[in-house]
């Protein structure tokens, strides 16, 4: 039995797999988010307790020896811990918007672009650089009390293994301090963000990922476990996206577009990031947009529509949603990919008394699709495209998405991040698993040519309206 742990933003999951990659059991626990005036925080003790609970649930369901475990989780944010991995304060989430004025300042004075040209990472308010700089200005005592500013999975790994010090891996360290050429922290970037005196908080980078034995919480004592990569590259592994040019679209809370590459182009528009992987020279060009299914969730809640009604409503209104259009940038911290606009907000246009909930739902799904197309084009997609995440549960939305993107979709269902975490752990420990079998798609969705042509024109309209919205956000 192989166990993958995926510590998500709103849900912690663990999955047990057999040697052929078949899921034997899945456990999950929700975790809370505290939102207040742009602050988005999480209770680390609640998150860790959820990890232990789902591991106990899964191992009870499948009473087989655990060969090894792989750990992944949400990226970015700031998780301040003491020497034992315990919280100094609540974790600041990647969704947090408190540092948006700092990012806006760095956009204006050139710091933002300079950092991107050195690291390939476009900072956004919820990334560690801005959050640490904000905390240094407003909560210096919290930083004084901390031994390390880590990422979600790093806190969990230290607690599960009892490691004497916190570490991270090259994937999480990619934003915003890691030089992708040397795979080490760029001290000039630390200086540019005014954090040289906090340099000691950056955890050492384990390259390849750290391993250890568990101390008996959630998993049997001594179980071999590997720390990383974080959820985006882990999902790419779990979906079989390793060939340069191939891509993955994660339709989850965050709409993330990833393309495997061996290139490193730091001359384009500063946006997204290059995620380093365990294989030197191999990277993922990532365009992780701030809002994916969260935009649809907001519209469903506002209109009183249940998730199980979405497929029928998508069929109840034609492409174009009777003129209703949505720019789906609902996050309080604006957008981070494939451009950075901290003050950008969502727009809903073309609505009249004749508009129906079906029009609003379809327009939102179309808008998310256009945002995904923008991200994938910017990331350099040239090969096949896999798709995973909660959005894949809607067959109608997947057909719409294939038409908006104008290409077939390799749908990969199940716990893709946890699957990728196991594959990464197996590679680290030298355990032979058949990656092709583990990552086989569950379906392939082909686009309707006529609708794909219609949406190609709609995409150009989306780009024009987006540019107008970005211009307004800057004034």
From TrEMBL:
GO terms classed as biological process: carbohydrate metabolic process
Key word Transferase present: yes
Keyword terms: Kinase, Transferase
GO function terms (MF aspect): kinase activity
Keyword Protein transport part of the UniProt annotation: no
Superkingdom of the organism of origin: Bacteria
Carbohydrate kinase FGGY C-terminal domain sequence ranges: 273-426
Cited InterPro entries: ATPase_NBD, Carb_kinase_FGGY, FGGY_C, FGGY_Carb_Kinase, FGGY_N
Pfam families referenced in this protein's UniProt entry, alphabetically: FGGY_C, FGGY_N
Gene3D superfamilies given in the database record: 3.30.420.40
Location of the Carbohydrate kinase FGGY N-terminal domain: 1-207
PANTHER family referenced in this protein's UniProt entry, alphabetically: L-XYLULOSE_3-KETO-L-GULONATE KINASE, SUGAR KINASE
Family the entry assigns: Belongs to the FGGY kinase family.
UniProt-recorded name of the protein: Uncharacterized protein
């Amino acid at each position: 039995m192989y166990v993958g742990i995926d510590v998500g933003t709103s849900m912690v999951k663990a999955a047990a797999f057999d040697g052929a990659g078949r899921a034997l059991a899945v456990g999950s626990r929700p975790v809370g988010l505290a939102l207040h005036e742009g602050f988005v925080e999480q209770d680390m003790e609640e998150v860790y307790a959820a990890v232990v609970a789902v591991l106990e649930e899964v191992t009870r369901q499948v009473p087989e020896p655990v060969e090894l475990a792989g750990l992944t989780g949400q990226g970015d944010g700031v998780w301040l811990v003491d020497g034992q991995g315990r919280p100094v304060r609540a974790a600041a989430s990647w969704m947090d918007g408190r540092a948006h004025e700092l990012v806006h300042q760095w956009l204006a004075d050139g710091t933002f672009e300079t950092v991107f040209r050195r690291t390939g990472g476009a900072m956004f308010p919820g990334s560690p650089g801005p959050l640490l700089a904000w905390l240094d200005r407003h909560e210096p005592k919290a930083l004084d009390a901390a031994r390390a500013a880590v990422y979600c999975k790093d806190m969990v790994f230290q607690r599960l293994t009892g490691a004497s010090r916190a570490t991270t891996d090259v994937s999480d360290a990619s934003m915003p301090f890691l030089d992708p050429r040397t795979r080490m922290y760029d001290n000039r970037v630390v200086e540019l963000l005014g954090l040289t005196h906090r340099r000691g908080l950056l955890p050492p980078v384990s390259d390849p990922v750290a391993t250890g034995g568990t101390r008996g919480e959630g998993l049997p004592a001594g179980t071999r476990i590997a720390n990383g990569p974080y959820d985006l590259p882990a999902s790419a592994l779990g979906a079989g996206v390793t060939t340069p040019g191939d891509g993955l679209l994660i339709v989850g809370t965050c709409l993330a577009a990833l393309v495997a590459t061996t290139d490193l182009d730091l001359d384009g528009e500063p946006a997204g990031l290059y995620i380093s992987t365990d294989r030197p020279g191999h990277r993922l060009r990532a365009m992780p947009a701030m809002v994916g299914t969260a935009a649809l969730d907001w519209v469903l809640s506002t209109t009183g529509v249940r998730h199980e009604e979405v497929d029928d409503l998508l069929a109840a209104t034609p492409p174009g949603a009777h003129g209703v259009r949505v720019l789906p940038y609902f996050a309080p911290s604006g957008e981070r990919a494939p451009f950075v606009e901290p003050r950008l907000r969502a727009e809903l246009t073309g609505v009249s008394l004749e508009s129906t909930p079906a029009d609003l739902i379809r327009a939102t799904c179309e808008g998310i699709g256009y945002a995904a197309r923008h991200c994938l084009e910017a990331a350099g997609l040239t090969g096949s495209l896999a798709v995973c995440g909660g959005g894949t549960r809607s067959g109608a939305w997947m057909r719409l998405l294939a038409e908006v993107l104008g290409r077939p979709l390799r749908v990969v269902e199940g716990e893709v991040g946890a699957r990728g975490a196991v594959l990464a752990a197996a590679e680290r420990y030298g355990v032979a698993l058949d990656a092709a079998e583990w990552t086989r798609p569950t379906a392939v969705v082909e686009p309707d040519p006529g609708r794909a042509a219609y949406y190609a024109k709609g995409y150009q309209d989306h780009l024009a309206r987006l540019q107008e919205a970005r211009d307004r956000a800057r004034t």
